[in-house]
Amino acid sequence: MVIKSCWYDARSSPEVNAFVRRAASQRAVLAPAPELAANLDAAYTGLALFGLAAAPVVFPQIARALGLDPDSEEFATRYAEETTRLVEHLKDD
To answer: Where are the domains of the chain?
Structure first.
């Protein structure tokens, strides 16, 4: 039910809609990324990365079940580092 609630809130939020429209109009999300691996679509990859960024906020219970504390400074630092390493694998070599 949490997922359905979050999806409904995001779809109905004028702020979220405005942000996405602004980002798309600036091509920040949809612009071809020359450093992105050729077999990845920039729009789908961008959407997945939004999900990656939102996961600890939307699903803190999963982080806690994995023994992590999504509210701690250490988590924020380590999650950012791990996310950076993950994104590095998306680059075209």
So the answer is: 1-31, 34-93
pLDDT score, position 18: 76
- Does pLDDT of 81 surpass 90? yes
Summarised one tens digit per residue, pLDDT across range 59-75 is 999 999 999 999 999 99
Which are the contacts of 56, defined by CB distance < 8 A and separation ≥ 6?
A: 63, 70, 75, 79
Q: Report the alpha-carbon distance of residue 61 to residue 33 in Å, rounded.
A: 33
Coil vs helix vs strand at 73: helix
Q: What b/e sequence results for 13-27 when a residue is b if at least 16 CB atoms lie within 10 Å of its CB, and e otherwise?
A: eeeeeeeeeeeeeee
Place of tokens 């990324």: 33
